[in-house]
Write a structure and sequence with these properties.
Largest sheet: 2 strands, antiparallel
Number of helices: 0
Strand content: 35-45%
Radius of gyration: 33 Å
Strand order of the largest sheet: 1-2
Distance between the termini: 34 Å
Shape: flat
Helix content: under 10%
Amino acid sequence: MPLSILVPLVTASLALSDAIPEESKGTCALQTKVTKNAAVQPLTCSAEEMWCHDPMTMTESCHPKSAGCPVTCLPGEHVCHEPQMFEGSDAYNYCSSYTCPVYCRFDEVWCHDPNTMVESCHNKTEGCPVTCYGSDHLCHMPPSCEGCEGYNWCQSVPCPAYCSMDEVHCYDSATMIESCHPLSAGCPVTCSPGESLCHEKPTCDTCQGYNYCHHGACPVYCEMHEVMCHDPSAMINSCHNKTEGCPVTCFGNEHVCHTPPQCEGCDGYNWCQSSPCPAYCGTDEVHCYDSATMMESCHPLSAGCPVTCSPGDSECHEPPTCDSCPGHNYCHPGPCPVICGVDEVVCHDVHTMTDSCHPASIGCPVTCPPGDTVCHMPPTCDTCQGYDYCHPGSCPVHCGMHEVMCHDPSTMTDSCHKKCAGCPVTCPAGENVCHMPPQCEGCDGYNWCQPSPCPVTCGMNEMVCHDSNTMTDTCYPASSGCPVSCAAHEYVCHTAPTCQGCHGGGSADYTIGFIFLTLRCSHVTVVGVELSC
C-alpha cells in the first residue's frame, strides 16, 4: 500500500545547532531540529523521552520514546504508528492515505492469519498461533536463543519434546518418553539399590549438570564460582569461593597471607610464611611502596599512589588516561598544572593565563569582540571534540554526526535534520511528499515530490510485498517474509532465516523469511532445526 509521508519544511536561521540533547541523537521521528538562540534555554528531555519539534507552532516538547513524536494528518489520512524496533529506540508516527500496516515491537513477532487475512503481533517467545484440524496435535518449539522466536505447528502424531534454551532434552529408555529439565539439574537417572545418585554441577553459565550412579559415596563437585580444596590432614575435599581461595592452617607465629584474584574468573590464593605478608593488590588497585616507612599498600587504581610533598610543594594529581590505567600523584613546586580526563579537553584563557577542563563534546569556550557571534561546531564522530569560534554576523549552520544539512532555495537558509528523516521538501499543490527510509546503517533518508501516488520504499530490514488481488505493494519485516493466502484445506508454512543475510528461498541482501503454501507442511526448516509436521 503506498504511503504518503508528510515531512514539513522547517528552516532555521539561528546560531548554534546543539538544541537536541544527547539522549535523542541518532534516533528518527517526524521532527526537525532548530538551532539554538543564546537567549532561549534549550529543552532537555529525560533518557526515556525523545525531543520533538512542532513546525506549526515552532515549539519543542518531550514525549515518551515508546509513543514517538505526535503528528497532525490531513482529513482522510491515517495516523500510523511504528513501535520501538529495539530496547531504548524511538517509536515513529507518520501520515498515510491508506490503511496503516501492522508493525510489531522488538519483543513481538508479526503473524498473518490466512483465514481472516488479518495481521497481528504476538509475544516472540510464544510465536504465531495456529489452528489445527481434526485430531491434529498443536505443537510448540520454544525459542532456541536469546531474541529468537517460538514456533507453533500442527501434526498428526504426538508432538516431540522441544526444550527451551535453559533446559536439557532427556529420554527415558524404560518408558520411551522424552522430557525437558532445567539445564543446571541435568537429566534424571534411576539407580540400583546400593548405588548413590551423584550430581556433577555445571562448569559454566551455559553448561548443563550431569547425574549418574556410583558405587559408594559421591565425589565432591563444586559450583562454577567455587574452587575445590583438599585437606591432607582430614583427607577430605570441600568447595570454597574462588576469590577467597583454599583455606590454610598456619603454625605458631606464622602469618596467613592472601593473594586476591589477578584476573576475571581467577582464583585467590592463601599461604603461610614466618615474615609479615607482602601486599598483593586486586585488579582494580595499584601496588604502592612508601620508602619512608618501608611499607607496602594497595590503593584504588584511579586514585594512584599517595605522595608526601615537601613544604612549599603542591600535591598534584594526573587522572587516568584510560579505563584500566592508574592515576598518578606527584609533587610540584608552585600550583599544579591542569590535567584533564579522557573525555575532556584542556582550555587556556589568554586573559587570565589559566587553564581549565571542559567536556570534549562542547570544546573550549571563547570570548568574542563586540559585534561577533559565538559559534559552535558539534563533534563529527564519537571521539571527536566540539569547537567554538567567533564569527562576524550570524553563525553558519553546522550539523552533528547523526544529522544532514539541508538547504532551502526559497529562503536561502540551511538547517539540520535527522539523517534518517532526510531533508524536508515543499511540494506544489496536488503533488505528494514521498519518503524513502535509509537503506543502510548510517545512510540518509530521502524525500521528493511527484504527482502520482508515492511508491512503496521499504527500510533496510523490510521487504516489498505485492498483492496480486489488490495490485498494491506494502512493506513487511524481512524476517517474516511476504504473507500468502491459502485455500481452506491448505496450510500456511514458514521458513525462517537461518543466518544474518540469508533468504528463506535463496540468497538476498537482507535477512528474509519465506512463507509458502502446500497441502501439508511435510518438511519445515526452522532456524536450522529440522522437524516433521
